[in-house]
Specification:
It contains eight helices and 14 strands. The chain is α/β, with parallel strands linked by helices. The protein has one domain: Metallo-beta-lactamase, Chain A (4-Layer Sandwich). The longest helix has 9 residues. It is globular.
Length: 307
């Protein structure tokens, strides 16, 4: 990063679960991402790093790709024989693409992990997570709406957003707009800056609009462009809503819901491999003309800047 001071973000992974290209997918986007000449870059699974000083970092969601994400971002490299600038990890839901990366961070390195009690139960119920040595990894159970220190000088607050339980916990047809500790958004404040990270959301309520209005930055769920996208592309039978994600487009889409809000920087992240915004075209043009950015791996964000 060119300037290590100030409240900054670094998109480690911009794609949804499976990444881009997904290992077993031959859709148009995945084919393009495998072609170095196409202009569509491969993207890893959803994760964001934040820092106030460029030396100490917090990770929001530990994706299965976190090892390569650390390799690809010099700010996260060790600075001595055994060291890491990563001081804390916060998990927003129990999906594999947000949780499995904790297992990569098991090499006896001091680390704070922040989760809700519901996500903590998922960790406790899976004995593989015992690989995280409690002598080094301290886990904190976070209460919704109660502020806590994610890094020195960086306050975080978790709040419920509509979603569903992780796929591996489904038993029959799940509630698709469940609000509780299963799926949360993150409010980050440092000084006068206020930032929101919401990589999974099934619906934008008036209460959520009121919360995020006036923010300095919003990184929001961009999983699918249209609700029936995976069906239309021919790679699945689930809608975006069935997966717990609202579509970007349409009368009930996030683009329309967020259009009237005063948010200085708006970005889509957690973008599915089928989403047409990965490539040049009318869908991407629509977002950019509406003032949205499309997140990408390695994207640097100055949260202190309103430009």
């Amino acid at each position: 990063m060119t300037d290590s001071s100030g409240f900054r973000g670094l998109v480690l992974g911009a794609a949804a679960g499976g990444g881009l290209p997904q290992w077993n997918c031959g859709c148009q986007n995945c084919r393009l991402a495998r072609d170095p000449a196409s202009g569509v870059r491969p993207q890893s699974q959803s994760s964001l790093a934040v820092s106030l000083d460029g030396d100490n970092w917090a990770i929001l969601n530990a994706s299965p790709d976190i090892r390569q994400q650390i390799v690809d971002n010099r700010a996260l490299h060790p600075r001595m024989l055994r060291d890491s600038p990563i001081k804390s990890v916060l998990i927003t839901n129990g999906d594999i693409d947000h949780l499995a990366g904790l297992l990569i961070l098991r090499e006896k390195q001091p680390l704070d992990v922040f989760v809700t009690s519901a996500i903590g139960e998922i960790i406790d119920d899976n004995p593989v997570f015992r690989a995280l040595d409690p002598a080094f990894v301290t886990r904190y159970s976070v209460v919704l709406e109660r502020p806590f220190s994610l890094l020195p000088g960086l306050e975080a607050r978790l709040f419920a957003v509509p979603g569903k339980v992780p796929l591996f916990m489904e038993d029959g047809e799940p509630e698709l707009q469940l609000e509780g500790e299963q799926t949360v958004g993150v409010e980050l404040t440092a000084g006068d800056a206020r930032v929101y990270y919401i990589p999974g959301c099934a619906h934008i309520s008036d209460a959520l609009k009121n919360r995020i209005d006036g923010a300095d930055a919003l990184l929001f769920d961009g999983t699918v462009f249209t609700d029936d996208e995976m069906i239309t592309v021919g790679v699945g039978q689930k809608t975006g809503q069935r997966m717990g994600h609202m579509a970007i487009s349409g009368a009930d889409g996030s683009l329309s819901a967020l259009a009237g809000l005063d948010i200085a920087q708006k970005m889509y992240v957690h973008i599915n491999n089928t989403n047409p915004i990965w490539r040049a075209g009318p869908e991407r043009d629509m977002l950019e003309e509406s003032g949205f950015h499309i997140g990408y791996d390695g994207m640097e964000i100055d949260f202190d800047s309103n430009t």
